[in-house]
């Protein structure tokens, strides 16, 4: 099932490159990300579970933001076809900034919380089986391709021949800000989602010290390490090894 989830992730990513409808591309990209989430959830390790939760929360904000941007384009151009609704950078420059932010977040550019979730899940997949590195590399490349494809197609090329386009309204900026602010809060304060008191730059190092993902049961290495560091004056401390 893990292999099927990874294969479905690649197939849906390739389908995104063949879509001409803007909302269809965004919808298929969500399906592609959920394939990675399913694969990580099936492994059932603390790192994979936390990474899956992080990516679901982050992608919920990113995908909703992309759908809002697609709707703003549709309200002005009355079409969702990528080849028709193009060249909006010269007409709506402020919306181009939002499109750039959403596209870069969708492809998990640092220091977004999407990157943290994907890194945790990919690390768990590599620990499970090293052959998954090929599938994850292909998926990462295709994800970056269709994310840039959305941005370049809608913002560049020749502007449309519409007579008049409505300017950007304040409510639209407010709506997009309500997506961006929680994402920035998760970057600055990962303790809202992870069991860590540090900033994002110290999150991975905190995880290596088992502060993010404490093990519920001690392993044999932990028991032996505890035995070696315990004074021999207490016979109960090393009676387990006798």
From TrEMBL:
Subcellular location as annotated: Mitochondrion membrane
Lineage: Eukaryota, Metazoa, Chordata, Craniata, Vertebrata
Domain NADH:quinone oxidoreductase/Mrp antiporter transmembrane span(s) in chain numbering: 1-142
Organism: Tenuidactylus caspius
Function: Core subunit of the mitochondrial membrane respiratory chain NADH dehydrogenase (Complex I) that is believed to belong to the minimal assembly required for catalysis. Complex I functions in the transfer of electrons from NADH to the respiratory chain. The immediate electron acceptor for the enzyme is believed to be ubiquinone.
GO molecular function: NADH dehydrogenase (ubiquinone) activity; NADH dehydrogenase activity; ubiquinone binding
UniProt protein name: NADH-ubiquinone oxidoreductase chain 4
Catalytic reaction list: a ubiquinone + NADH + 5 H(+)(in) = a ubiquinol + NAD(+) + 4 H(+)(out)
One GO term of the biological process aspect: ATP synthesis coupled electron transport
Bilayer topology annotation: Multi-pass membrane protein
Family to which the UniProt record says this protein belongs: Belongs to the complex I subunit 4 family.
Entry's transmembrane regions: 25-45, 51-70, 82-101, 133-154
GO cellular component: mitochondrial membrane
Keyword tags: Electron transport, Membrane, Mitochondrion, NAD, Respiratory chain, Translocase, Transmembrane, Transmembrane helix, Transport, Ubiquinone
The enzyme's E.C. designation: 7.1.1.2
Keyword Lipid biosynthesis among UniProt keywords: no
């Amino acid at each position: 099932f893990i292999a099927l989830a990874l294969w479905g992730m690649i197939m849906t990513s390739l389908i995104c490159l063949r879509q001409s409808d803007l909302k269809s591309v965004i919808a298929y990209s969500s399906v592609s990300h959920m394939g990675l989430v399913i694969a990580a959830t099936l492994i059932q390790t603390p790192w994979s579970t936390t990474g899956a939760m992080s990516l679901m929360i982050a992608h919920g904000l990113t995908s909703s933001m992309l759908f809002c941007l697609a709707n703003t384009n549709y309200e002005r151009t009355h079409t969702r076809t990528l080849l028709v609704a193009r060249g909006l950078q010269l007409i709506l420059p402020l919306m181009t900034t939002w499109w750039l932010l959403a596209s870069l977040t969708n492809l998990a550019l640092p220091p977004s919380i999407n990157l943290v979730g994907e890194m945790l899940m990919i690390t768990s997949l590599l620990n499970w089986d090293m052959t998954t590195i090929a599938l994850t590399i292909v998926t990462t490349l295709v994800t970056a391709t269709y994310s840039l494809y959305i941005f370049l197609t809608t913002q560049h090329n020749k502007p449309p021949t519409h007579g008049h386009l409505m300017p950007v309204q304040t409510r639209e900026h407010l709506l997009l800000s309500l997506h961006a602010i929680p994402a920035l809060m998760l970057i600055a304060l990962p303790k809202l989602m992870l069991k860590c008191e540090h900033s994002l730059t110290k999150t991975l190092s905190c995880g290596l010290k088992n502060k993010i993902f404490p093990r519920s049961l001690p392993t044999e290495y932990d028991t032996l390490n505890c035995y070696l560091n315990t004074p021999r004056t207490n016979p109960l401390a090393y009676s387990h090894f006798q």
